[in-house]
Structures
1.
Amino acid sequence: MEELSKSFGPVHAVRGLSLDVRAGEVHAVCGHNGAGKSTLVKTLVGLVRPDEGVIRFEGQELSLRNPQDAQSHGIALVNQELSLVPELSVEDNIYLGGLDVPLVYRRRRLSENARAVLDQLGLRHVQLGTAVEALSIGERQLVEIARLLVRDARLLILDEPTATLSKPEIERVFRATRDLVAQGRSVIFVSHRLDEVFELCDRVTVLRDGRRVATHEIHEIDRRSLIEHMLGEMEGAKAMGAHEHTDAGSGEAVVRIEGLTVPGSVASVSLTLESGVITGLAGQVGSGTSTILRALGGLVPTATGTVEVHGKPVLLNTPRRAVAAGVLYVPNDRQREGLFLGQTAERNLTVSRLRRLSRLGVLLRRRVRRTARELATMAGVSVERLGSPAASLSGGNQQKVLLGRALQLEGTALLALDEPTRGVDVGGRAEIHNLVREAARKGTAVIFSSTELDEVLDLADVVVTIFHGRIVSVVPRAEASAPAILADMTTSHASDGGVPS
Amino acid sequence: MARVGIEPRPLRLADAALAAWIAILAGVTVYGAATTTGFLTVSNMKAILTAASFVGIIAVGLTVIVLSGNLFSLALGQTAAISAMVFLYSLRWGLAAAILLTLVLGLAIGAAQGFVVGAWGANPIIVTIGAAGLMEGMAVWLSHGQSIVPPVDQTSWEHLANPVLGLPAPVYVFIVVTVLLAVVMARTRFGRQIYLLGENRVAARAAALPITLLTVGAFGIASLYTAGSGVLIGATSANASLLLVGSYTYDAIAAALVGGNAVTGGRGSIARTAAGAIFIATISDMLLLRGYSTGAQILVRGIIVVVVVVLTNLRERSR
């Protein structure tokens, strides 16, 4: 039995972690966001060098400098984002960048080799000369695997391989994976989807806060205890009673969403958002929570369904319409879509209210300055920083500036906050949560998305769990429990689950 | 994250290189000024300002497009030329009517291009090349390829070319419209929104800025200013044809670039462009006085533009 183990010291994300993967097994790695899964994967393929600890593979101690190095030792990663060139043929993609492709291209031998690998993966029907763009996403995933197999990968790491696949495609990838381990190869399977972990894997390791919590044979563990491991019993219990939630909701329905659908992402979501109530959308990355908020903000032209604000139906096909209707969307990607990084904090804070800060088109400079000071103070950004470019602020302060621009805006019926504390440290997070609560207290309806359970439980009055573009559950905060929500976030109760694409 | 940090930005290599370049240019200019016969005379200063004003008016207008993140217009020369033609032709209805008609036409031409760019997300370079072709075609078709001259019984237009208090009228126009636009860009909601749009178009969309309207405004202003310059060009040359297209487009772009406005938008100012236009006119004048050929003048101008653009770019990237 080959055994590989690794452990490494106090890196930020991962502490003293060790893990062994046997030959001929599918080993699942589970954990909540920030548990250290991606750091582990990056270390294994040489993208990150461990501060301490070693990787032993096939009895040999490895010091990996880069992914090519890892590949030459037989360790390879199948990425979430595929790295194939769509215009090139299947065969060319398989050999593209290969280390041992001879300068003089010996076509026949290589072709036979590629054919054999494709057949082995169940791609008998795919011609070597077919352009990759003609294949389905699932087939591309398999070509990606084929590419690693011709390089004789003996440890394959599948990082969320099924996120973008349909049910039959997932089946095919699973079948191929089982064949691979039957040949004595090893697979590390990183996934949020617990169903798949139980279906495919032999053993499962749970990470939390950069540590290994447990490793179990899959038949020794059930879903419940797996979720408990992921959450940590204490954490889960604490989170449940952590924050006092005032019942500020006036009960007045501000926004009614009926059958909101975005092809390929969101399936018929209906919600009623009340004044003063904070609704939290809980869902994993790619579950559609972000798309729902973007659609409300007028940024998804393909969205269908009806949205009523104060009883009036509104067409949310441009951000301007959304804002005119009183729906204010705050983007999650503050660097790309949120802030004007090269412009001053003052300009960023006042961008949404320039009309009220000008007369006949001329800016009232004193009023602009005063408003920016007020908003900065409210959002907890130092007033001295108002003249500095937003790019020079820390991540937390940037987020506060972004949120600050949406505060105290007349005519706002709904604040839609997409991952309001992404990349913000604990202290900043608490301050931002207070800002959101304050806005709700003043009667605005608030909806936010988060992939982090703690945040949803901390901030939301109503928890809406989304899986694969559908609402799985709507639970008032008082009745919400971390394990139940995590279970909902990782599986759909409805067996079909899928989104029409 | 490269952009995060609260300490003041240290002086980087690119900043130092830019400063060095400015010092070299200043040094060469001072040296040239001191050693070139006839450079430091009042009449030569007037000549420089006059030469700068035609391109300068176009360039400051163009700056609004640059700041809005829509690169450049490549239809400026054509707009100037047909504006001159329209102006001279319509003088038969009186001076005021001719000026008004030309300016309104210029504004409309630019606004139309801005609409295509802003509302449909078309590439500004391609749209303006297309517009330039359209304008040339229309001009040839309507003028039958002939030069337009002012009506013989009309002399009112000559005031536009004559000196006032010792300086040609275009110089005053240049100063006034530059100050006006600088105030608009610094003090109005429109100006502020143009900067924001140029800084980050995606964020501007998410923040619900009126992108189409702003783009229409940017191209409208650029084209309006170009038409204004066209009026002055027509009055000065008293004869207008497509030959006037000349190199106005590239000269205006060069002025905006040499002034150090970020090609990507959001950063820069009207004043920078005006300075760029005057600087280029100064260098050209100096080379002319020292007897260099037109070829050498164009070459030197090209070198200056390239170096400034590279340095500004490096500097922007290191921010």
2.
Amino acid sequence: MNWGSWLLSGFLATLALSTLLATTQGLGLTRMNLPYLLGTFFTPEREKAKIYGFFVHLLNGWAFSILYVLIFESRHAVSWWFGAILGLAQALFVLTVGMALMPGLHPRMASEQHGPTANRQLEPPGFMALHYGYQTPLSVFLAHAVFGAILGSLYHLAR
Amino acid sequence: MSCIHLRVHRKVDGSREAPDAEITPAGPDTTFSRPKIEDYGIIGDCRSAALVSRYGSVEWLCWPRFDKPSIFAAILDRERGGHWRISPVASSSITRQYVPDTNVLETHFATSSGSAVLTDLMTSGFNRFHLKEFRPDHEIIRRVTCVAGQVEFEIDFCPRASYGQSEVRIHQVGKLGLRFFVGSGVYWLRSSVPLVPAARGGRARASVVLHAGESIHFSLSYSEEAPAVLPPLTELDARFDRAIKAWGEWGKRAGYDGEYRAMVMRSALTLKLLSYSPSGAIIAAPTTSLPERVGGALNWDYRYCWLRDASFTIRALLELGYWDEAEDFLDWMLQATRLTHPELRILYSLYGDIAPVERELDLTGYCDSRPVRVGNAARDQLQLDVYGEVIDAAAQFAFHGGYLDRTLQKVLIELGNHVARNWNQADEGIWEPRFGRRHHTHSRLLCWTAMDRLVRLNEDGHLKSAPVDDYKRHSNAIRHQIENQAWSEHLQSYVSVLDSEELDASLLLLSWYGFAEANSPRMQSTYRALRRYLGTPNGLLYRYQTPDHEGTFAICSFWEAEYLALGGGSLKDAQDLFAHLLKYANDLGLYGEEIDPNTGGALGNFPQAFTHVGLIGAALSIRQREMGEQQLAHRPPDAHTHAEAQKTS
């Protein structure tokens, strides 16, 4: 495994993921602001939450990218399209399992069963994050596919 | 569609009785009858505003900002516009008020079985005390409390997207509430009463019987970012209290303690609601196409910012002590004008862009007053007066002790040079007629003001490197032209267009801007002519002579009161007229652009910033006369310096 290559390609792929998610939000495909969602784990202050969330997402992407690299190495298959397939699989997992668990994991998120309380006031994402807009899954699939493809192609080039 | 008004108490002279209690007939259809323009109250969050009728119905709301498409627009189309009504099922007597010194609206319903209070508030934006809490991006909270007996209420929630052009699909989402999407935004309605969405999903209804001491709560929020914040209804009472406290704190900052404090504060609070806090802009009014003549076509979109209002607004804010708001407005103005500098447009959007192109909407209009327009075609007009108004606004800021930095000085000099090159042109003038350009006296007056203020700023040391000799020369030339070509020997009056025999009420401003002493023979004679040709028997004033049967222009009457206070009449004359004009406010103290001379009702977009600025200005001038002070614009330079020294110390 090429550690330097992982660090660089993981970092760049995560930046691309963040950029794409922000772009799809700006274009109105989704309302989901992932840095804000992650940052509110730590603070209710909107602007601070976005900054915290951005760095958490960056670290998160980096951490996840090592899993991609381990799979690349174990399968002896490093390519943009294999990375993209892994990205789509991760997106599916995030949208179905991750989003369903979110009200239980997030200390400030309300649930459909109990409604908002003084401590839990954030709108839950719902199945496939559809509460955040009907095209949210499209945005998430697209961003993660690009994440995997960039990771795969950059790691391949640096090997 | 026929226009059914409910009964309103009026005096013989057209002015309103206060307090104004009104009996509504029973039944949902009658309580949803067409309110008059003055039957609305405003709530807002300094980014957007809602109009709430006296019958408990939100009938105008544009989110996320003033100039975006509406989600409720029943004020412009009863069938398709959309509304959110919370009102008693039974016939009721209605009184309204704002919680003193706040923009929290209370509507009291008294029925034969009991009485209740509906409290309306738009949160966020203004209340900066709780930034560490979650806050919805935009939110209206409503509370109904039964105070005696029992009252049955009906709730009818009927949003319509894009100025009523499309229906929405409302879904119940577990215990989170009702949700619907519009474009890239989401609306959440949370209610302590179960609301039942209609089968087709575009509406939700409920009815509930409240007994003494019981309350129900509602929260409608909007967000373009996820996750949205869904505040629990159990906290709404505390949030009402916090908002009341926050508005109260803002009100305490006002530096006016004269006889008319309540009305001055209502005007200041309304002006605050019409400000757009992210940029500092102040819009003319939060509505579009409320008619200047009911059933007519004089229907315009006022959700933009007119430079024309600048110097009046800055003066009002500064003299009341609202420096932050004045500085924000000045910053917005200079930022906005940078785009077209040194040429100025007459109106700009909230962020200083050119206002949108005018188009017509497929709505019935207020009482069949069509067309309903959005955007404003006046954006392409030339009004030379705006240069003077911008320069005077900056001068007022400096004379009050503000600092003009080098960039601002440079901008002012370039504007002055532009005026020096162009003051002799024809333009559309202050009233924005759509039939061509003429040589308006008011535009000349403001060009003179521009030259005069730049010279004075230079003399006071606020402005360096200005070609003051040029400015003085042009100032004298403009004065010469006004005194010769804008004076009619026949009418014994200044006239509104050079070498004409026409009059308009803006001639009163010759004194306001310090061009002519209010007690000079020419101004006295002009005032008599204006009253003779533009006055009404009940003491109001048309802005000009027109065959269009529009209403009297509210700010012109306040200009008249201010003219009297500046020396055009006795102090008592000014006080009497001002007190008389206060009777034409609605029961909440709000004014539209115009006043119907026959009924005393409001006409035009509502509430109107310009009118409220006029009220504040007149009250300030009366106060200054009472205290023996001169209006700032007329004080000699050494008095400015003295005032600044006092402010600094």
3.
Amino acid sequence: MPAIRLDGLTKSYGKARGIVDVDLVVTPGEVFGFLGPNGAGKTTTIRTLLDLIRPTSGKAEVLGLDSTKDSLEIRRRVGYLPGDLALWEWMTTRQLLEHLGRLRGRIDTRYRDELLGRFAVEPDRKIKNLSSGNKQKVGIIQAFMHKPELIILDEPTAGLDPLMQHATYEVIEEARAEGRTVFLSSHVLPEVERIAERVGIIRNGRVIEVETVENLKARTVRQLEVRFGAHAPTTAALRAVGGVTEATVSGDSAYVRIEGSMDPLVKALAAYEVRSLRTHETPLEDIFLAMYRGADDAG
Amino acid sequence: MPGEVFRRVLSSRKRGLIGWTVSLVTLMFLMVIAYPAVRDQDMFADLMEQYPDFVQQIMGLGSGLSITSPAGYLNSQVFANMLPMLFLIFLIGFAVRETAGEERDRTMDLLLAYPVTRERVLVEKLAALLGAGLWLGLASAATLMVFGPLVDMDLGIGGYAGATLSTVLVAWVFGAFALALGAATGSRAVSIGTSSGVAVAFYILWGFAPLIDAIEFTNVVNPWYWALAGDPIVNGVQGMNALLLAGITAALALVGVWGFRRRDLGI
């Protein structure tokens, strides 16, 4: 039984927003990254899983339960971090977490207290006096504290400093190691690459790709800037190298875009004197373009 | 744990409730010490009689109470207008903040991602609202009962209970109406605007109904009429009327639950 199964899930709002015909299966025990630019429909999909909004058509199953009919049971077994987190500002962190714990009935507070320590959250300060990063940490703690079977995180590391991002990845990794499932959305590829095993890519409300991170990396587009010594290769020579989709040479430097493995390019460059080589992080949009091209090729 | 939402709502309103309680106790105390000035001036009674019937009606003197009597004084100055209006302001604000307000603040998103049904959330919030209304009523009545004897003002336990319960019930009805609207629409503007507009409209209708035959039928659906019919300040709690208003409160809350369950939560 999948942890999450979306079957033709559609949510229409007036014109542009919403999701169309989303099919997705998340396997128990995996960390699944839901990747897409802002406004692509990630939050809409996630809020449907929790019955905060109802599908226009199609079906969502969480832990084998229907997202509308069995929502209470789903919410009992899931932890959720909203994308645009809001907490009761007048409470202290401790009061908030105790209140939320009691909404679940009785929970083991040991893991909660351990997380408070690991995220260095001062539990007796009022939420309204916390920075947005600290509020986010409280949001992460409440999603994990009862050790749910499935943890749904909408943009978990937004606003966190690198140290706390790392702490979040650790907690996610621990959950995975214990066989629990994590479904997280993100608009940054490196994050998903780092922690997820599989990725679903959503754009304009449609899931355009579901792929393992390994395969995705193989198709990743990289941009390189190369500065050569005495001779630079010709544009044509660079374009002829396997995987290169674009190359321009001007003077002693070249700009190259390459998909997949770097190996053919590195071997080709070895014939020249390379003074410097810089790679740029690939903008997500470029990956989507590559995806679309991939889809076109297949069709 | 049952009552968890109820407890959080009340503790978040603790400061507001304390402030309102202090203000109401002060106000009721001032009403008490102002009474001798009215009681000893027959001029006031004459003056009131010269007012148009509409004014006498909305001052709670429609059934011939004299403003110089304790019941007439308290009805005209407190129970037929000022106190229910104050309670309405408090309870409508309360209801809207706890429904559409909490949704706009987005804390509703987190709350409803926990294993609590929407009906439970709304019922617990309704219970907090009713409790807050009752508390304000009790605090006001207690002040009058404690200080009234200083100026020979005493309605007796039945009179105080009748007048206070009526005030609280009217505020409950419109508070529940605001709660239902806020839950069913998610709009603070719709909820505040409609509930306070309808409350004031019914108040004006209640004032004119005895004078204009054409609108007298509206009394049948007018909470103000059922709250004040039978002069509870003189005759004590009017059981059937009170039950009717409590029933309307419950029915409005049910409509709110129905509307809240069937819709998407906003972000």
4.
Amino acid sequence: MSASTTKIEDYALVGDCETAALISRGGSIDWLCWPRFDSGACCAALLGGPENGHWLLAPVAAAAISRRYRPDTLVLETEFTTPEGSATLIDFMPVRTHDSHVVRLIHGRRGSVAMRTELVLRFDYGLLVPWVTRLEDGRHSFIAGPDRLVLSSDVPLRGENLQTVGEFRVAGGQTLAFVLTYCRSYLSLPAPIDAGDDTFLAALGRAVSGKRRVYGCSATLSHYAQSSDLSAYRRDSGSRHYFAAGEDRRCAQLGLPLLLAARCDLHAAGDDE
Amino acid sequence: MNSGLYTEAQQWRDWLLRAVGGDPGRMQIMYGVAGERLLPEWEIGWLRGYERSVPVRIGNAASEQLQLDVYGELMDVLHQGRCGQLAANDAGWQLQIALVDHLAEVWNRPDHGMWEVRGKPRHFTASKVMAWVALDRMIRSAEQFRLEAPLRRWRSLRQRIHADVCRHGFNRRLGTFVASYGSKHLDASLLLLPIVGFLRQTDPRVRSTVAAIERQLTEDGLVKRYDTATSGDGLPAGEGVFLACSFWLVDNLVLLKRRKDARGLFERLLGLRNDVGLLSEEYDPRSGRLLGNFPQSFSHIALVNSAHNLTRARGPARQRAAGAHSMLDRPAQRRTNRRGGGSR
């Protein structure tokens, strides 16, 4: 998915009202200014090449692709269908409370799909290679001067040719989460995402239901968090098998947004598993 | 406000006042996201550009241009906000008076126009029309809300600008308004004349201008900003059709009660959106590609306005033509909520 061959009309936008990312049909974030709309870009592939910063999350094999926004939201769903199965990539940026996040969830629908992720962050509009370290809790940190990005991933990643890459499979019914968070490098690290955290829940709720609020409907997804779906989820500890990697707790936490955001149709009857 | 977003409208209004506040001679045509004024333009040498389109520029040198239309846009927004009963801001009225005093000094200067042409400044017809809008909305605000104002002076200036536009911006031989004083060329910005209430859509000069734009300034039924070959805008000739202007044509067709044509054009424009509904600034009918800024709010705002114009008896075009948003224009659902919530 080289950015230089992606047309502008092949991009979709997700945002948190303070900045936005452009995501290609092929699942690559090719433009992202952080923390503001007019900050320097840390992903600038759109105006250069993949080496100027991008974040790919897509099947290894060629896939048929269809996309849509979840109705009345800026939650983008990209559906990949390959000969070995299908999976949905869910991208969004929750409205901020404190830190700014890009949340990417990959949900297996059918079969088992071989996936690849490729993260190249280049601050100052595609120029600066950041200082990449592994934090004690397993997260990756990318520092360039005053800026720091922190990546939580449900799958193991490794450094390779100045990129952070990983290959994994996603099986039907399984959900894997990736969260990239912006913060100032000289301030304290953002806490690991804890989906049990009311603030984060509320932020997610706003991200996914902002428009409904505007049109006078009081239902938010954080409201849904108290609803039967979630209680069922909490009761059924057996649902751990939905999450592939170890560290069950963290994975389950990261997976929770999916249940919140996806309540309407992701676990619909169409799923084979 | 037409979409019921009164809270957001008020936040936008407050942002606008903070941005333009201060020395009226230093009002800019654009600001940073938080209202910053210094937006120097510089080039990124290390990026090869989207489809090799170079140079890659950050900032915008146009931020230092004189574009008279922004005075009209600003005063229109602030007047609409009063009519929509956004919380009053008394200091804002004093700021407006200072700005309109400044406009009285500069309105007859040539400017760069709403298309921010980088060539020599000209007397753009649409710029003068928007200067008229600034005066018109100030007068309406003062009358309607009993605000203190030098009404006699303003009314006479409003009349003078109107006469100036009708004399110099209209070409008798062609029978149409033209892009700038003394020019022989059309410009899509002239589609705003009936929408902002400068002249009625039934005025023969407006009718013939709209008809000429439909005939001469379209490609495959979609509207170009102007003919780039003759414009001297400092850009290479040949750009795509401009989507916002095409929506303005929809609005004109609605005003002219040509609803079927309006709907047809609107639906065609909807068909240009990408798979998730986003539009760019321009479109190339020959290659079928989106061009320019993407996604572009100017196009999407025009789309929303046209949708309101097509679906409501008094859409934004009729409201602006009549001078203002009215409380009767509030979306029904919002009115109900308001009564229920009693928040105001």
